[in-house]
Amino acid sequence: MSSETTVSPQVEPKIPLCRENVCNDCTRETDVIFESIDHIRYGGHVRLFENYGGFRPAGMEGERLDVEIVQMPYHSPVLRLLLAFMHHDQPQPSVASVDIYTLRAFADAAQKHEIFPAIQVCKLQMEIHIPNHPLIVFSYAARYKYRDLLNKAAKFTIDSDFSVLEKQFGSDNSRDALYAWFRYREGWLELQKASRREPRFIQHKKNSYCEPSAWVAFHAEVLKAFGESLSTLAEATNIVARYEHMLNGCDKCLARSGLLKTTLDNQLDRIKYASCSLFLV
Predict the structure, then answer these.
(1) 5 CB-near residues (< 8 Å, 6+ apart)
(2) Looking at the domain assignment, is residue 216 inside a domain?
(3) Domains in the chain: how many in total?
(4) What would the pLDDT profile of 192-206 be if each residue is shown by its tens digit?
(5) Contact criterion met (CB below 8 Å) for 281 and 179
(6) Cα 260 to the chain's mean position, in Å?
(7) What is the pLDDT of residues 43-55, one digit of tens each?
(8) Which domain holds residue 225?
(9) How far apart are CA 139 and CA 177, in angstroms?
């Protein structure tokens, strides 16, 4: 279906009242009908909406003779939110309970029609969804160049398969964002390599009470805790510290553990400096 707004001339169809299903407190007369993809109709106000791109029916300059139905390229939950937010003199509806897929569609529509209050609300709500839907938020942030939001979402995507990420972008011009993701993820892969390298041995004094097996057991537990997930390594130094009690207070083994933590901390600092948005062209 075309993404463009189309107008269907009708013979005096009944116009739904705005306050019935869009804006409860609206007292204006409705003079135009907006129809969603799923054929739900909403009453609207030409004068109120005429400053928003795509919401003034074609051919309505001058005197109106017939009521027109403007067919919009959105499903009804999205269209209803758009119409509600365009009532600039009424309380804005809450989007806190809107599911992520409707929110993303609404966010795209708000951008297209330049409904600025809705744009800001969507951006804030998208950030809340990062832990559970990082790929959707990442693609949204990349599309509209929201660098801060992109960086926050990026660290939740590093365990994702590239094919899943690519599918999320769909037909968007995603080359720059995918390149940035690859470069950013490369830093995490370097961290993973560093986490698996055993730090150099520190010579113990003669007659040391330290059991060599203590280090072996400690390092094995640390590697097991690191696992295969890149995101786990965000807490790499804390994980090392968690198992240092297994070294039984041996100063040489603890120094060796310190070398590992320093290496991991240095790589984590590089990742923080080289944020995902830094690689956007």
Answers:
(1) 54, 55, 70, 71, 72, 73
(2) yes
(3) 1
(4) 999 999 998 888 776
(5) yes
(6) 33
(7) 887 777 777 765 5
(8) 184-276
(9) 8
